[in-house]
Amino acid sequence: MFGPEGPSLRELAVQALSSVEHGYDLLAPKFDHTPFRTPDAVLESVAKALAGTGPYQDGLDLCCGTGAGTETLAGLCRRSVTGVDFSAGMLEVARRRIRPAGGPGVAWVRGDARALPFTAAFDLVVSFGAFGHFLPGELPVLFRQVHAALRPGGRFAFPVLAPPRPTRPAYWALLGFDAVMRVRNALWRPPFVMYYRAFRLGDVLGGLRRAGFAVETAPQPEFGRRDDGSPRARLVTARRLSPPPAA
Q1: Which of 96, 174, 191, 235 has a beta carbon 3.0–4.6 Å from 196's, enabling a disulfide?
Q2: Which residues form the signal peptide (predicted)?
Q3: What is the largest CA-CA distance in the chain?
Q4: Which bin fits 153, alpha (ψ -120 to 50), beta or left (φ > 0)?
């Protein structure tokens, strides 16, 4: 699961007993050598799907980590891309590894996705693999923040993988992981919020609509279909309606 350049079990244990922010500060130097980094195939599939929906001037990578999604965003935006994350360690790695030569300007901002310091600043917001760090009750705030950061007509896009069936070992592995995290957070402070099964597509789509988005989903054909014919991965695209919804 982890190569020789990845974190040791001891390092992962220390991270898991830290806060989310400090845990990712610790993991940052080796993050790109873990399975937690979004695979290139997912990034490429999203870029391909969004390429025909632009053009975009300014983009935001929400919870950017070490910047893999920010690089993808730079291929879609003409003027600027911004990566925002609350881990200073992850942002430091992103600054070192992404040094643009030509193309859009790149900026890095340390901030909380639940309190974004932007208003009508972007045409496109993307996010990859970060939603497990938000409790279901926090999603309405998150979606309102993204809505406010987008210009009217701007898009918020992110991939969603289909959950495994109960007949698959992965289903029980994720169920067990979430159970361990709940026990950990009941017994240890500060909490480390990371739940794989809390981000439910139906609830998410409804939350986006209530936040003032027109929402579409499309299969990502590169990842095929499950036995029942449903796609293994979808791209959610939420377009900001104007004016914003009443508070």
Answers
A1: 174
A2: none
A3: 52
A4: left
Alpha-carbon span 63 to 199, nearest angstrom: 16
Q: Are 114 and 147 in contact (CB under 8 A)?
A: no
Cβ atoms of 26 and 57 within 8 Å: the answer is no
β-strands 122-127, 233-240 pairing: unpaired
- Reading the chain (247 residues) residue by residue, the pLDDT tens digits are 456 777 887 888 888 788 888 889 899 999 888 888 999 999 999 999 999 898 899 999 999 999 999 999 999 999 999 999 999 999 999 999 887 767 789 999 999 999 999 999 999 999 998 999 999 999 999 999 999 999 999 999 999 999 888 888 988 898 998 999 899 989 989 988 888 888 889 999 999 999 999 999 999 999 999 888 899 999 999 999 976 666 5
Chain-centroid distance of CA 178 in Å reads 18
Are 37 and 66 contacting, i.e. CB atoms less than 8 angstroms apart? Answer: yes
Identify the CATH class of 38-240: alpha beta
Amino acid at 116: L
Backbone angles phi, psi at 32, to 5 degrees: -70, -5
DSSP state of 108: E
Handedness of CA 91, 96, 100, 105 (dihedral sign): positive
Q: How far apart are CA 30 and CA 67, in angstroms?
A: 13
CB 65 within 8 A of CB 94: yes
Show the tokens assigned to 115: 């309190």
